[in-house]
Amino acid sequence: DPKIIQKPKYLVAVTGSEKILICEQYLGHNAMYWYRQSAKKPLEFMFSYSYQKLMDNQTASSRFQPQSSKKNHLDLQITALKPDDSATYFCASSQDGWGKNTLYFGAGTRLSVL
Amino acid sequence: QQKVQQSPESLIVPEGGMASLNCTSSDRNVDYFWWYRQHSGKSPKMLMSIFSNGEKEEGRFTVHLNKASLHTSLHIRDSQPSDSALYLCAAAGGSALGRLHFGAGTQLIVIP
Q1: Interface of B with A in 33-92 (CB under 8 A)
Q2: Of A51, A90, A105, B4, which residue is the least packed, with the fewest Cβ within 10 Å?
């Protein structure tokens, strides 16, 4: 059984629209993250949350907004979608947010923006 | 410029052969390294971690770390076709807050 659930698995959107990517983890971890992987760039850190608080944000654009309604949830809202946003978005979690904690990744949401 | 450089970009080895992958960080603040494996269309799965100088072996996989040069290597002996995947090196500092820096990866192909 997957312990980090991401929904949907595939998403097609039109330029300018808004989408929400869902992530829930059942590993009992206290830290959650969003990473992005595209054909043009390696796996890239976006956000980290620890105990539902934003700890680090490496995303320059405010169009990307993480939302944490519960400790084991971290959704990602993307507004004003652009074709360049096309990528696979991975949610990840770790026991805590510091140093040597190993990250575990969900299966990803593959987003295509037309 | 990428903080984590991996080489080679791609590697073809025969079944039963040895695969050697390299990774170097240009960030002197890095303390920890991981190797992840990502099969096509799947998510990255942690293969091995190494945090201290030296060598660590788990089954067919061995990792080395030289902290002075911030270089790590992964060696896969008796390579199997199922080992064919993208191997990602990740590095982080002590206060990274989950911010792992990933390299672009080495695409390993094991030919039966």
Answers
A1: 34, 42-46, 49, 51, 88, 90, 92
A2: A51
CA proximity to A97, closest of B34, B94, B25:
B94
Instruction: Quote the CA–CA distance of A5 and A25 in Å, as a whole number.
Output: 6
pLDDT tens across B60-101, in order? 999 999 999 999 999 999 999 999 999 999 998 866 667 889
Cross-chain CB nearest to B98 (options A33, A42, A44): A33
Q: Which residues of B43-77 are buried (b: 16+ CB within 10 A; e: fewer)?
A: bbeebbbbeeeeeeeeeebbbbbeeeebebbbebe
Plot region of B105 (φ>0 → left; ψ -120 to 50 → alpha; else → beta): left
Query: Chain A partners of B45 at a C-beta cutoff of 8 Å?
Result: 105
Helix (H, G, I), strand (E, B) or coil at B68: coil
Chain A interface, best mutation among B7, B97, B106, B107, by max A CB count within 10 A: B97
Q: Are A64 and A78 in contact (CB under 8 A)?
A: yes
pLDDT at B90: 95
Tell me: the pLDDT tens digits for A6-32? 999 999 999 999 999 999 999 999 999
